[in-house]
Amino acid sequence: MAESRMSYTDEHLLTSEINLTNCDREPIHIPGSVQPYGFLLCLHEQTLRIVQASENTLALLGIAAPDLLGAGLEQLLSADQVEAIAHLYPTLGVTPKLLGVRLDKVAGQPFFKIILHRHDQLLWAEFEPVTDATTNALDLGQLNEALGQMLSATRVLEFCQYTVEQVRRITGFDRVAIYRFAGDESGEIIAEAKHEDLEPWLGLHYPATDIPQQARAMYLKNWLRFIPNASYVPARLVPANNPATNRPPDMTYAVLRSVSPIHLQYLHNMGSAATMTISLIREGKLWGMVTCHHRTPRLVGYELRDLCQFLGKTFSALIKTKEQYDEQEYQLRIRETQVHLLEHVSSSINFVDGLYRQRPTVQDVFDCGGAAVCFDGEVILLGNTPSQEQVQELLAWLQEHAPQEVFHTDSYVQHNPAGLALRPTASGILAVSLADAPGNYLLWFRPEVVQTVTWAGQNTKAEVLADGQVFLSPRQSFEAWKQLVESTSAPWKPMEIEAAKEIRLHISDVRLKVFNELQARASRLSQLNIELERSNDELDSFAYVASHDLKEPLRGIHNYSLFLLEDYADQLDAEGVSKLQTLVRLSQRMESLIESLLQLSRVGRQELVVDVIDMNELLIEVVDLLAPRFEQTNTTVNVAHPLPIIRGDQVRLREVFSNLLTNAMRYSDRPDKVVEVGAVSTEEAGQKEFVNLDDFHVFYVRDNGIGIDPKHHSSIFKLFKRLHAQDKYGGGTGAGLAIVKKMVEKHGGALWVESIKGEGATFYFSLSKHL
Ligand code: BLA
């Protein structure tokens, strides 16, 4: 074999030089020999003369290879058969075409299948004998059944299981398995159908090196690799080089291509005498392989292999949808758990409780070993996790080095050497920060893959070959792989990271809601408190006034005066009657005082009915309503239109204006009373210290009346506060301004006065713009 590669030693390695570290460089596409269960003829592409033949033609045909060189196919085939090949020839490429032939011209085994393809300037004719030993039954019914079952699967594992069962049923191999590659190209047996005597391989992992790169590349081009007898003696090509190119021909597409000796040794170690491997390809990448093994040599006919290849291609076309189904299912599971979890979070008084006190907990959301809820200095551990102390250290590290909202790694030790101690439980970490407050995190942990993987042949000893080289054994492979994946967990899927982000958002939403609610409650409470205080004040005054000053005398005065007027009027003089009448009037006045009180308490209790109000219209209405009294008192009312359109309670604001206007009209001695109404402009506001006009509308009612001494400016808004004799200036109850004040306050505003005694007064009130 070495001889056949003489001219290639510069570029390629010799078989004797191949070891564990350099298998990727073994030139397996140019082995210069074939597996001897068939023979190979390489014909010159143009002349169609045989330029190379495998040396086993002698064994299979009784003709020595050198004797075939220079001849055409007519040496072996009938004219019809040659004609048939000539017919196929123009359509030939790397995809093989099959021709069944009976070699009448030669002695020995008469039935052959010729597998034809064109590649590397040669026409390749590979002859496979069809013997009694060939498993060749091609049954369309079987195919139908196989496909039917495969198509009925929805999930990846189910699909794989059906596939291995069907391939085993069709081919009769002792063991049929599906070997799926991981991101690092190591692999795992995820489905298996086997003879009951065999040890199961299901779940075993093998390193990437077990199928070197160049072999993988070849299995992408060539969907089926068949080794019917792993203890064969290779049959060399004669001559070794293609005379036209002076190098060994590229056997990538040759089914008889001889196998790497190192792989044959591997098969031997596995106890396998025959294998057939079907590529499973997803979107141009080798997704996995169906590997078939037999304990004894096993010849599977070309058509049956073709059928298996067909199943492989069908599998390849469908695997994406099955994976998508699994992904969606996992996503759905995540979603469902997420929803339940968040329900707990929302319904718990303390949201942290919702994260771990009942199932599903945070840990249940993802496939992970454990989780931790870290909040306000407390760390709650769930499942398999690092210790409290270690998690605290991790939190400190996260705060310093991973300030982003979501941090994930499948190898924490690569970020922080101290992570080495955490690797059994937390090689992989997914962390979401919960709040601005430092140290608040949700953490998910994934263990080191090495801890979870069953390694093929983990316990077998390394073999030392005769030449002293340590032969790769599964044990060696494990060590090599272990170094590669040490401290690494299964990766976090993008959908998991997304879900973690969502959980984070939901939680902060919930917390925000709770916070807002608390705030709203707090402000409602403080509002209530203020109102309570106010109404307490008023209630106090009311209780006092009502019980001592009003209620008792009212009852007595009213009853007695009525009684006297009715029964003793004729016994009294005019003055007496008048006094009694005054008493009755007084009691009536008391009644109106009580009425005002009630009105005030109503204003305090009732909610505003907020509407959009055009203040221009509202004032026109108010002024219209009061017009007769204005006329009587010779009062001119000027409204400085335009007034703004605002939000507020129509009825209340009408009362506000009506009250203020009535006051303005009343408290004046002037014959020409003028009242001005308007809204404070930005300009005016700028000149004085006004409330912020961005948040408030400010209105004023200005009169040219008697004015108010500044010392009374705050007391005039108190209940029943009168500055003047009761019957002076129209004799109100003294509740008006208190009621106005209350209404304005209900609108989120304030009422105040600016005035100098004798020079008129301006009442201002503000109304919130955010009602
Ligand atoms: C090829 N290695 C292969 C193939 C498989 C495996 C399936 C395809 C050829 C075939 O059908 O046998 C590996 N087979 C497995 C694994 C399982 C299995 C993992 O059934 C699991 C149950 N192999 C090594 C190392 C080297 C190596 C260290 O373990 C290199 C030094 C080489 N493997 C190697 C080579 C081939 C190969 C060169 C290509 C064989 C060929 O097609 O010529």
From TrEMBL:
InterPro entries with a match to the protein in the record: BphY/WalK/GraS-like, GAF, GAF-like_dom_sf, HATPase_C_sf, HATPase_dom, His_kinase_dom, HisK_dim/P_dom, HisK_dim/P_sf
User: GO MF terms on file?
Assistant: ATP binding
Residue span, Phytochrome chromophore attachment site domain = 155-313
Q: What class of enzyme is it?
A: transferase
Record's catalysed reaction(s): ATP + protein L-histidine = ADP + protein N-phospho-L-histidine
Domain Histidine kinase, residue spans = 545-771
**Keywords, ordered alphabetically:** ATP-binding, Chromophore, Kinase, Nucleotide-binding, Photoreceptor protein, Plasmid, Receptor, Sensory transduction, Transferase
Q: What is its EC number?
A: 2.7.13.3
Q: Which CDD domains match?
A: HisKA
* Pfam families in the cross-refs: GAF, HATPase_c, HisKA, PAS_2, PHY
Assigned protein family = In the N-terminal section; belongs to the phytochrome family.
Name of this chain's protein = histidine kinase
Q: What is the organism of origin for this protein?
A: Hymenobacter tibetensis
